[in-house]
Amino acid sequence: xxxxxxxxxxxxxxxxxxxxxxxxxxxxxxxxxxxxxxxxxxxxxxxxxxxxxxxxxxxxxxxxxxxxxxxxxxxxxxxxxxxxxxxxxxxxxxxxxxxxxxxxxxxxxxxxxxxxxxxxxxxxxxxxxxxxxxxxxxxxxxxxxxxxxxxxxxxxxxxxxxxxxxxxxxxxxxxxxxxxxxxxxxxxxxxxxxxxxxxxxxxxxxxxxxxxxxxxxxxxxxx
Length: 223
Prior knowledge:
The strands form 3 sheets. A 4-stranded mixed sheet has the order 7-4-3-9, with no helix packed on it. Strands 6-5-8 form a 3-stranded antiparallel sheet, with no helix packed on it. It starts with 5 loop residues before the first helix and ends with a strand. The chain contains 7 helices and 9 strands; from the N terminus they run αβααααβααβββββββ. The protein is globular and about 55 Å long. It is an alpha/beta fold. Helices cover 39% and strands 18% of the residues. Helix 1 (6-13) crosses helix 2 (30-48) and helix 2 packs antiparallel against helix 3 (50-59). The protein has helices at residues 6-13, 30-48, 50-59, 86-99, 102-115, 123-134, 139-147; strands at 21-23, 119-121, 153-159, 162-168, 178-182, 185-189, 196-199, 208-209, 216-219.
C-alpha cells in the first residue's frame, strides 16, 4: 500500500464504478465501493505482478469487521457496512478464482461497463449479468458475502488416507468449489454443507487452501 497514492488510484477507479455505473439505491453502494476497492488490486497487479496484487487484496482483510451485511436496507436511504470496501474487494477476488480464467474475468469487468453504460443499476442486475457469463447459479455466493456477516468455514478432517470436508457457517445452498493443494497437486474440491470425501494419495496429508479464497480453513482432524 506504500507503493502508490491510494486516494488517486481509488478515486480514479470510480470513473468506472460510480461515474459510469451508478446504483439506484444507496443500499447497493457496494457496487461503487467494492469494485473500486478491487481496482486497487488490479492497479498493483499491473505494475508489480499478479502475486503482489493478490497479496494486496488479501492484506485489506484485516479491515473487515463483519459487523453487518454489505447491502443495506432499501428505500430508506440506508447504506450497508463499511465492509463494502475490503470485503467487497475480497468477494470479487474470490469470484475471480471461481472463474479460473483471468481473461474471461477481465471481460466481465469491462462488460459490466458496456452493458450498464451510464445507467443506474441494482445488485440484482449485477448478479444476473455475472451468472449469465459464468453459467453458474451464484445466488448463494452473493447471499453469503453481501447479505450475511459470516465467513465461510472450510471444515475438514483427515482419517488415514481419507479426507472428509464440508462448508460450515454458510447460507443454504452455498456450494462453491474450492481450490486446494494436496501433496503438491492442485485439486478442486466441491464442498457443500454435507460431508464429502476425497481419497488421499497417502495417509495423513492435509489440504492447503488457496489463500485467495476469502474463507476460513478449520482442521477438525483432532477434535
